[in-house]
C-alpha cells in the first residue's frame, strides 16, 4: 500500500499573518475539493447527472502539506484563550517590536519568535483517521522522538496538550513545545511550536498557554548550548514521516 504523499515546504522566517493566510488558503482549497466531490456524489446518487458535471479547475483529490518556519516575535491567543494571560500592554509590545493576533486555533496564549521551529501540517485526516485526539498525540510523538535524538526526555502532561520535561515533578515542570490546531472538514491547520534556541524572556510577558507556576524551556537551555536549526528541521521531517506513515515530497 502506497504511503500518502505530503508536500513539504520550509517557509523560512515569515511574518505570522502571512503564514496564517497561506495556511488558510491551503485549507480552504482542500475544503472546496471535498465539498465539490461530496455534492457530486449526492447528485449522482439522486440521478441528477447535470448537477454532477465536473467543475473546471476542481482537483481530483485533496493535497496535504507539512510547513515549517520561524516567525518574528508575535503573541497569539487561541479562540478559547483569556486575554488576562497577556501581561504586557499594547504600547510595550509596539516598543519591543512584538505583534499580537487573536486566532482561530484551540488553546490559550503563546509566543512565536526567531530560533523556534513552528510546524503547520495541513493534513486531510480522512486519509488517516478521524480522531483529533489521536492526531494531537501523534504530533506530540513527533516532538518526543526529535527531542530523544538530542538526549532529552520529552513527555506528555495529563490534561495539557504539548510536550513537557519532567511534568510529574512539582516545581520542575517545563514546557518545550506548545500545540494548538484547527480542523475543518477533517482538514487541519496550525500545529506546534518547538523552542530550539528561542529567547525565552519573551515568555515572561504572558502566562504561557494559561498555565500558571510552570516554566518554559528550550533545547538550548536543556543542553546548555545552541543547536543547528536546519538539523532540527530535518529530524522533525523524518519523525513526521515515520509517525504519520506518510512520504514527504518537495514536488507537487
In short:
The protein is α/β, with parallel strands linked by helices and 252 residues long. It has a single domain, classed as Bira Bifunctional Protein, Domain 2 (BirA Bifunctional Protein, domain 2, 2-Layer Sandwich). The protein is globular.
* End-to-end gap: 20 Å
CATH superfamily: Bira Bifunctional Protein, Domain 2
Mean pLDDT: 90
Task: Report the sheet-strand fraction.
Answer: 25-35%
Number of domains: 1
CATH architecture annotation name:
2-Layer Sandwich
CATH topology: BirA Bifunctional Protein, domain 2
- Element pattern in H and E: EHEEHEEEHEEEEEHHE
Structural shape:
globular
Q: How would you describe the oligomerization state of the chains in this entry?
A: single chain
Number of strands: 12
**Biggest sheet features:** 9 strands, mixed
What does this structure look like?
The protein is of the alpha/beta class and 252 residues long. It has a single domain (10-15, 67-246), classed as BirA Bifunctional Protein, domain 2 (2-Layer Sandwich), CATH 3.30.930.10. The protein is 30% helix and 28% strand. It is built from 5 helices and 12 strands. It has helices spanning 16-45, 90-96, 132-148, 219-223, 229-244, and strands spanning 4-13, 64-70, 74-77, 99-102, 109-112, 116-122, 155-157, 160-165, 174-184, 187-195, 215-216, 246-249. Strands 1, 2, 6, 7, 8, 9, 10, 11 and 12 form a 9-stranded mixed β-sheet that branches. It has a 3-stranded mixed β-sheet with strand order 4-3-5, with no helix packed on it. Strand 8 (160-165) and strand 9 form a beta hairpin. Helix 3 packs across helix 5. The longest helix has 30 residues, at 16-45. The relative contact order is 0.18. The model has no long low-confidence stretch (mean pLDDT 90).
Amino acid at each position: 500500500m502506497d504511503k500518502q504523499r505530503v508536500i513539504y515546504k520550509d517557509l523560512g522566517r515569515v511574518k505570522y499573518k502571512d503564514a496564517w493566510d497561506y495556511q488558510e488558503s491551503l485549507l480552504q482549497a482542500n475544503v472546496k475539493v471535498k465539498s465539490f466531490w461530496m455534492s457530486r456524489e449526492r447528485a449522482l446518487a439522486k440521478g441528477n447527472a447535470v448537477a454532477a458535471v465536473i467543475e473546471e479547475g476542481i482537483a481530483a483529490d485533496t493535497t496535504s502539506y507539512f510547513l515549517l518556519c520561524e516567525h518574528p516575535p508575535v503573541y497569539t491567543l487561541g479562540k478559547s484563550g483569556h486575554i488576562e494571560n497577556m501581561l504586557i500592554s499594547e504600547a510595550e509590545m509596539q516598543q519591543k517590536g512584538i505583534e499580537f493576533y487573536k486566532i482561530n486555533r484551540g488553546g490559550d496564549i503563546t509566543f512565536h519568535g526567531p530560533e523556534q521551529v513552528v510546524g503547520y501540517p495541513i493534513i486531510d485526516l480522512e486519509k488517516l483517521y478521524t480522531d483529533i485526539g489521536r492526531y494531537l498525540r501523534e504530533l506530540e510523538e513527533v516532538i518526543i522522538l526529535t527531542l530523544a535524538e538530542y538526549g532529552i526526555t520529552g513527555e506528555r502532561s495529563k490534561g495539557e496538550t504539548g510536550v513537557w520535561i519532567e511534568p510529574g515533578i512539582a516545581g520542575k515542570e517545563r514546557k518545550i513545545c506548545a500545540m494548538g490546531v484547527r480542523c475543518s472538514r477533517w482538514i487541519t491547520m496550525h500545529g506546534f511550536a518547538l523552542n530550539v534556541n528561542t529567547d525565552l524572556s519573551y515568555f515572561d510577558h504572558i502566562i504561557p498557554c494559561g498555565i500558571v507556576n510552570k516554566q518554559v524551556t528550550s533545547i538550548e537551555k536543556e543542553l546548555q548550548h545552541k543547536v543547528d536549526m536546519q538539523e532540527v528541521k530535518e529530524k522533525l521531517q523524518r519523525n513526521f514521516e515515520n509517525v504519520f506513515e506518510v512520504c514527504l515530497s518537495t514536488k507537487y
